[in-house]
Design brief:
CATH superfamily: ATP adenylyltransferase
Strand order of the largest sheet: 3-4-5-7-6-9-10-8
Pfam family, one: ATP_transf
Protein name: Phosphorylase
Oligomer: single chain
Shape: globular
Strand content: 25-35%
CATH architecture: 2-Layer Sandwich
CATH topology: HIT family, subunit A
Number of strands: 13
Order of helices and strands: HEEHEEEHEEHEHEEEEEHH
Number of helices: 7
Organism: Photobacterium iliopiscarium
GO molecular function: ATP binding; ATP:ADP adenylyltransferase activity
Helix content: 25-40%
CATH class: Alpha Beta
Structural class: alpha+beta
Number of domains: 1
Amino acid sequence: MLWDKALTVANDAREAQVLLPIATMSSVVSEQGIDFFIKIMNDNLTKKMQQGQTGKNPFLPYDEQMFVDTVGHEHVCLLNKYPAGEPHLLICSKAFVNQSSLLDLYDFSAWIQGVTYPNVLGFFNSASEAGASQRHRHMQLIKTVVPLEDMILSGKLPFRHKLFTFDRINSEKAYFCYLAAMHDLGLTPNNVTLNINEPIECLPYNILLTQHWMLVIPRLTNHIGDIFANALNYSGCFLVKDQQQYDWLTDYGCLRLLTECVAP
């Protein structure tokens, strides 16, 4: 059981003080009848940003203390060293694959092994414009409530997207829905031929994935003002650097920010 192993590895990593959670304070902000979750980040954010500035790939090689399990033939499951919640899992390709290239069936097969649990949200940032901080292919998993779920499933999201619902998810079904979304949203080149030897570069987008639905969102920018937005924000959960950003976001509006980050 992937999550059982993850909890054990996370407990060991926590005791060894090698996990560096980036969020501490959390509050609920009501907007248009939706209770958004906003967390204020702590000083570990600086350490994460410094790691990113080195240009080193943290997944090749990965930190053995972060290793959870091998997932299929092409992927490993790792703990996120800088989790937004605990545990926060990463499904990473063993070899380098560009984060902005089209996902394949192996990606979905590995990712879904962590999705088919209660209250698990999978999310994916395809490029820096969509909130990705690393270029190496990785999908993410976290246990969390989804404040925007009712709006998502009711079809009332105020921005472009493609939604698919499932009675019981499987990798093939999710993968072909994903390909349809990428085509319909214009995120892949026209008349593209799928060839495993030729990675296909895509325009920026996010995915939210649960055991019952998948949402694909085309992205225009990764920030409005000083607030950066990635896929997790489209669940209704936000991370901000400090109280000043918190005040700015609550005044500006969470839904407004999410809408303005989406490609028209």
